[in-house]
Model the fold of this input.
Amino acid sequence: ECTLTATLQTVHMRDIRKLDKMFSTSNEPSITVRQQAILVNCDPVRAVIMRDCCFVFLPDGTDSLIAHLKSNFKLHIADASAFEFAYNHTIYALEAILATICCIFSTQCKQVIPLGRPALEKMTKDESMSELESLRSIKNSMSVLESQLGGMRRLLMTLLENEADLHMMYLTKLCEDPKLAQDLFYIDTEDVESILELYLQEIYSSQTRVALMAQNIVNTESIVMLKLDSKRNFLLSVDLSLTLLGTLIAMPTFIVGAFGMNLNSHIQDTEYVFWVVFALCGLFILVGYVVVVKYLKQQGINMSWTY
Done:
């Protein structure tokens, strides 16, 4: 039979400093289990859960979360009391915080995703740069949300794999019977695992929705950029055609200009010379254009004006 012996670490000042954004080295969410305390750092909710109380810290401008926290605490603590889970009050306090965080993510998804769908529809019809910039702004918001969801998912998965922390979450049991700390496997962690797996699925569901919309935005951006590239190539083709015509016309223009000088060459007295020169100039332009276009086509450059 496998037994797990663990030394319960007390709360250190560095653990408290992790709850302060100014002293935190990263924005990665964390749940730290210490002796008779669970420290939750999941922006914007930061909390210290103990066996008989819970302290929640919220940043400025998040007063709307207070109502959600109160309702979730009342709901989950009432459930714990109704089912006579006397030892699980700390677990259900953690569940109330996780429920609030999932509610925050769900609200953000409901706000961001509906903005992306109309933008995608507009982009498929109108490739204007204003819509493209709007879509990029929405994409940035989704990237931030996806990063937060990914961090929360990694946190819950890591916590589920940490057997010692799962057993140490039962603060009341460990306080009433300290000998359990010497063999934590005597504590059944089925309920806390079920709670963490439940919210892990919710986080994964929200992350999938955001990732799908973000991928749709990336695909739409790629299609729009392909359309813009096609238009640019078409304009370059037209510009090249006009430049070629201008170059071919320049040479007959020189000849015409030479005949137009106030110099007497007596050529103008010869019959049909004007028509011969005019025909040769026109033929030169036509043949030169056809030859150059055919050569460029052989090189893989299409000079067609068809878009």
